[in-house]
Design brief:
The protein is an all-alpha fold. Helix content is about 60%, strand content about 0%. The chain has two domains: about 1-55, no CATH class; about 55-95, no CATH class.
């Protein structure tokens, strides 16, 4: 399961001496984090299953620093790559080639 808060942080929160109402609030929030962590893990599994059938995503994860989620996100943002008339247009669309455009001399 994805750990949205971190084991060390959870232990620290669990060990705090708090008034009863604050303890109840913190414990409730930790339960919500557990639930959301499970939801995120389920979505990550669904993305992974989809990625197994996508040659493009499998190719993108071979790039150092690109994980499964970032590769799937990139494919979702790009959509059909054929809609870009050139690689330069795609790079510009993704904001990977920043340029300074200014008027005047400085």
């Amino acid at each position: 399961m994805s750990d949205l808060f971190g084991a060390a942080g959870r232990r620290w929160l669990a060990g705090l001496e708090l008034p009863a109402d604050e303890r109840e609030t913190v414990d409730g929030c930790l339960r919500v984090l557990d639930f959301l962590g499970g939801e995120v893990a389920g979505l990550e599994r669904a993305v992974a299953r989809h990625a197994l059938h996508s040659a493009e995503i499998r190719r993108l994860v071979t790039i150092p620093g690109v994980n499964l989620i970032s590769a799937a996100t990139l494919m979702a943002v790009i959509g059909d790559v054929e809609r870009f008339p050139s690689a330069r247009k795609l790079v510009g669309y993704l904001g990977l080639d920043p340029q300074v455009r200014q008027s005047g001399s400085g």
